[in-house]
Amino acid sequence: MKQKKVYIETYGCQMNKYDSELATSILAGEGYQVTHHPGEADLILVNTCSVRDHAEMRALGRLGALNAHKLANPRLKIGVMGCMAQRIGEQILKEKRFVDFAIGPDSYRSLPAILDRLKEDNARQICADITDFEVYLDIYPNRESGVSAWVAIMRGCNNFCAYCIVPYLRGRERSRPADNVLDEIRQLSREGFKEVSLLGQNVNSYHDGDVDFPELISRVSQVDGILRVRFASSHPKDLSEKLIRAIAAHRTICNHIHLAVQSGSNKILKLMNRNYTREHFLSLLEKARNLVEGISFTTDIIVGFPEETEHDFHDTLDLVQQAQFDNAFIFKYNPRSGTAAAEMQEAVTEEEKLARLIELNELQNSITLNRNRELIGCKAEVLVEGRSKKSATENMGRTDTNKIVIFPARSGDIGKIVGVQIAGAEGHTLFGEFPGI
Ligand code: SF4
Asked: CA 410, 413, 417 angle in degrees (round to 5)?
C-alpha cells in the first residue's frame, strides 16, 4: 500500500505553525506522512493568515500556483486551513473550484471525516465552527526534531483590539490544563528539545483554576532538560509584577518580553481599545528593568491608524525614544472588514502612512544598532540552534535576551548553551567569537 503523503505550507504567526503540527499529527493517524515536495503529495494544505490583506493575497496566489500539481495529478486533494479559511472559506470554494475544502482553526479534528467524504463522493466542504472549548489537548503535535519548539498554552482572545480580526476568527479565550501543558513539555525534553516558547494571543490571561501564567511558566522552567523558556504574546494591560518576578527568579526563563505597544498616543490607544496608557506602558518597562538586569523588550507598532495626527505620531516617536526597545515590528494600518476600526473614518493617506513607517523604522533601527553595539566586548550565553544560513563554517544561536548571534561552528555545539564573546554588531545581528581562540 503506497504511503499517503501530505504537503503543508504555513503562513502567519507561531500559533499557525503549531496548528500545522497539530493537523499533520491528526493526519498521521490516518496514515499520512509529511513530504516537503508538493509534487509527491496526495494532499496539499495551505495554512493561512488574515492579519493583513497582503497575507491573504499571498496565500491565494500560492493556492493558484499549487493547483498546477492537481492538473498533473487529478487525485490530489487541496485544502485551505487557518484564519482566512475561517473568514472567507465559502468565497474561496466559490472562486477556486480546485480547492476541495476549507477548515477553520477550531475544526482540525474534522480532517479525517472531510477526507473520507471526499473519497466517497468528492464532496467539497467547509468546516468553520468556532468553539469555546477546543484546545486539542489529546493531540501531540507532529514536529520535526530540533532545538526549539512552540507550545500553545491557550487559544482565542477576548480583547477585541479595534484593528484586529483574531477574536472573530479564533473565538474566546480558553486555556489548556497546566498538567497537559507540562506533559507536552516533558515529552519535548525527552525528544531532545532544549527551548520551549509558550504561545497564546495574550498569555498573561492564561489560567487553569488557581494556576495563572506566572505560576505555569515557573513550573515549566523546572522541567528537566529544558534550558530556555520563552513566551508570546503579552498584553500590556495584563503584564503583572508577579510575572516579572518569576522571570527574575528562574534562570531558564529568558530575559526578554515581547510587549506590543501599538501606539505612543493615549488618544489612539483609546481608539484602538488597548486599555492602557503610554504612562502605564513605560512604567512596566521601568519596573521590569529594575527587577531584571539586562532584560530586553521588543514590540509591535501600527502607524497611520484612523484619526492619527502628526501630533499623535510624534507621541509614538517620543515613546520609542524613551522606551529604547531592542527591536520593533512596525506596520502600516490596514483596515480589516468586520473589525471596529474598519468602521472608522480613515484620515491618513497611504503616502503619510509610508512616510511615518520609514521615519519610525529609521529611529528604531538606530536604537537597535546602538543597543547591540553596547554589547561588543561582553560575554553572552548563546543557545546554539544550528548552522548559519549564510555560512557553513558558522553557527547561529540566540542570547537569552533573544538577540541573534553568528559565531564559528564547532562540532557538538548544537543544542548547547555556549559562552561567546561579542565582537561585532550589524543591523539586528551580533557576531561572536570564542574567547582565547
Ligand atoms: S490582544 Fe488584541 S491584537 Fe492581540 S490577538 Fe487579541 S485582539 Fe488581536
From this structure: 130
